[in-house]
Write a structure and sequence with these properties.
With 137 residues, this protein is an alpha+beta fold. The protein is 29% helix and 38% strand. The chain has four helices and eight strands; from the N terminus they run E-E-H-E-E-H-H-H-E-E-E-E. A hairpin with a 2-residue loop joins strand 5 (96-102) and strand 6.
């Protein structure tokens, strides 16, 4: 198991970590199996998407309509941290991802990238926990 740190800006910041993960898979000499990724924290998520700034903006626009930051969430009354939307967004996207590896390469589509998304309202240093599950055949 390994951990990588990801510096984020918050407010639905999307950070591509594919290359760093690819380097780690090579360093570990991991040939075949599954890589399980888990981002720590209840206001961040991990998923795949194309690394396109316009798509990132579209993604933010859709989330702003579905789960706006400027809403009076009951969570704000409980904690006073004004990040209720961040918790909901992270739960909808999810905190973990499994990616197959074959012959040392992630089995991703041509434009598919692995990204961490930080929904919190301020910059953070996120930890992504990586587990390697070797294939037995």
């Amino acid at each position: 198991m390994r951990i990588i740190n990801v510096a984020t800006k918050g407010n639905t910041d999307i950070v591509d970590i594919t290359y760093e993960l690819f380097q780690l898979v090579n360093k570990e000499d991991f040939e075949n199996g599954l890589v399980h990724l888990f981002v720590k924290g209840s206001t961040a998520a991990i998923t795949t998407m194309e690394n396109d700034p316009n798509l990132f903006e579209d993604f933010r626009t859709v989330l702003d309509k579905l789960v706006p930051y400027n809403f009076n969430y009951k969570h704000h009354q409980t904690w006073g941290d004004n990040n209720g939307a961040a918790h909901i967004r992270a739960s909808l996207i999810g905190m973990s991802l499994i990616v197959p590896v074959l012959n040392g390469n992630f089995m991703l589509g041509a434009y598919q990238r692995i990204v961490v998304i930080d929904f919190d309202t301020k910059p953070r240093n996120r930890e992504v926990v990586i587990s390697f599950i070797k294939s037995t055949y």
